[in-house]
Amino acid sequence: MKISTKGRYAITAMLQLGLNDSRTPVTLMQISVAQGISLSYLEQLFSKLRQSKLVEGARGPGGGYRLARHPKDISVADILQAVNEEEKTTAHSRLLDKQEGPGGESRRLWHQLSRQVNAYLSGIRLSHLLEDSEKHQLTKAFA
């Protein structure tokens, strides 16, 4: 399975928030500079992440974004669904399921596969990715 650029950027941005103190807001400009993602693209993503209640915005001086929930309560599937990645796959699977005629068995197979991928991604928590990222940083520091 290939995750789109939109999905990868959303996961990367959420990781950036998680790596910072959860009480300290992070600006989109900070994420843009740190991750090399355009500011306008981040604005689009964060609009969707905020609507899905995965991030909270703080206005004014010292404002920015922070995670709305603990990283252990946010899955990769949650992030992808927020930026409409999973929605497209699920909607397509439902459409295929309703179609009659030849190929019904293969449509059921793809729908089942889609559900299994979603279940797998639901089991991967942002906290797991953060732990892996921190371990990688420690390994790099002592290499």
**Distance separating the two termini:** 32 Å
The strand line-up of the biggest sheet is: 1-2
* Uncertain stretches: none
Tally of distinct domains: 1
How many strands, which pairing sense, and closed or not: the largest β-sheet?
2 strands, antiparallel
How many H/I helical runs? Answer: 7
Write the SSE topology.
Elements: H1 5-19, H2 28-35, H3 39-51, E1 55-58, E2 64-67, H4 76-82, H5 85-98, H6 104-123, H7 126-141
Antiparallel strand pairs: 1-2
Question: What's this model, at a glance?
Answer:
This protein has seven helices and two strands.
Defining key terms:
143 residues; mainly alpha; Arc Repressor Mutant, subunit A; two-stranded antiparallel sheet; 7 helices; 2 strands; elongated
Describe the structure in your own words:
- The chain is mainly α and about 140 residues long.
- The chain has one domain: Arc Repressor Mutant, subunit A, CATH 1.10.10.10.
- Helices cover about 65% and strands about 5% of the residues.
- It has a two-stranded antiparallel sheet with strand order 1-2.
- A hairpin with a 5-residue loop joins strand 1 and strand 2.
- Helix 1 crosses helix 3 and helix 5 packs antiparallel against helix 6.
- The model has no long low-confidence stretch (mean pLDDT about 85).
